[in-house]
Amino acid sequence: MISLASTSSDSSLREPPDFSFVLGGPLFQLIRRAGLADDDLMLVRRRIVAISLLCWLPLLVLTALGGELLGGGAAVPFLKDIEVHVKFLLAVPLLIAAELVVHRRIRNVVRQFVERRLIPDSGMARFDAAIAAAFRLRNSVLAEVLMIAFVYVVGILVVWRQYMALDAATWYATPSAAGPRLSLAGMWYGYVSVPIFQFLVLRWYFRIAVWARFLWQVSRIKLNLVPTHPDGQGGLGFLANTAHAFSLLAAAHGAILAGPLANRIFYLGAQLLEFKVEIAVVVVFLLCLVLGPLLVFGRQLFLTKLKGKREYGTLAQRYVREFDAKWLRGGAPADEPLVGSGDVQSLADMGSGYELVQNMRTVLVTRDAVIQVVAATLAPVVPLLLTMMPLEDLLKKLFGLLF
């Protein structure tokens, strides 16, 4: 019998990769030199305060000087604009805090490929190449320049200018025949605050694209999957835990959705249920964004299960045939008692192993992961339920459903 030590490969002795699709890029280097981050993305509070105040504080000052802070000619003065406060004082901090959480957790997830010896020696070069490719894309100057250009050309000149948040006089713009006329605060809002916010969101989509591309490249390697692994996913069950890493990102999208809904409910007389389609679309989008990249392993998991069923089925057939011949057809020695024999326990163990193969899942998406993403996305929207019924009635309904 070959010992485990004799089968140890060089890949099991190497240092696990320090992977991160967040730690890098021209903007990260700029922030690090400005003293808002270190080499491991710490100082997160400093970044949150600096970026949030850069977006929000000038708006407060300019609207105070322009008389749109609490009143003036604006139907929606600055301090009563729920969307802008939620966007810059809740969504932006969540987007920034999510960087540190994702950086720490995804780094440990990628290490599992090496620590669990899922990458064979023959595939280690391709695994290293996938990591190197992800780093090159993450650090791309061209990618960030294109994102900034996209934000100003499409995000501001097309989306924001053509689809204003409210069709009414606000602190940042007044409707006119020639189009919305921006106030001084509106100029800062439209050309500084909103672009920063849109860039943060767009950069997250780019990062997840880098993550998805990395997973796809790893899924092309023939992994050392075991169909009887207790996680029920061939040994890849740890990947489902990535949903925890993206919880803050999902909550940020929930806040991005909740802000404009609140404005429309409070100032345009809309009802929350009128936006059920929009809410459902955002939830489905987040599920696809967070859990979609994991689906690339489906084919390899399916083939592993298929092979496992064939091999374990053959082994089980051989065992039960010998068991039958020995104990039911008179093949057992006369002096070997049935009571206390290990054969019966071995038969039960064989059945348990085959059942593990039968129940192996070929999709790395668990119910708990789905619930976590949905709950994180909807958490900022839940307070808007109070616009439909008093808090007391809402609590009674919730307790009625739970208990």
Outline the structure in words.
This protein has 403 residues and is mostly helical. It has one domain (16-303, 364-402). Helix content is 63%, strand content 1%. The chain has 14 helices and 2 strands. It has helices at residues 10-13, 26-33, 44-66, 82-115, 124-138, 141-162, 184-219, 242-245, 247-267, 276-291, 298-327, 342-358, 367-378, 391-402; strands at 173-174, 181-182. The protein has a two-stranded antiparallel ribbon. Strand 1 and strand 2 form a beta hairpin. The radius of gyration is 28 Å and the shape is elongated. The N and C termini lie far apart (57 Å).
Radius of gyration: 28 Å
Return the string of H and E elements.
HHHHHHEEHHHHHHHH
| Sheet/helix structural class | mainly alpha
Total E-strand runs: 2
The best one-word shape is elongated
Number of helices: 14
Uncertain stretches of 5 or more adjacent residues: 1-13
| Share in β-strands | under 5%
Span of the ends, CA to CA: 57 Å
Largest sheet: 2 strands, antiparallel
Order of strands across the biggest sheet?
1-2
Helix content: 55-70%
**What average pLDDT do the residues reach?**
84
Overall domain count = 1
Keywords:
403 residues, 14 helices, mainly alpha, single chain, two-stranded antiparallel ribbon, disordered N terminus
SSE layout and pairing:
Elements: H1 10-13, H2 26-33, H3 44-66, H4 82-115, H5 124-138, H6 141-162, E1 173-174, E2 181-182, H7 184-219, H8 242-245, H9 247-267, H10 276-291, H11 298-327, H12 342-358, H13 367-378, H14 391-402
Antiparallel strand pairs: 1-2
Helix pairs in contact: 3-4, 3-7, 4-7, 4-9, 5-7, 6-7, 9-10, 9-13, 10-13, 11-12
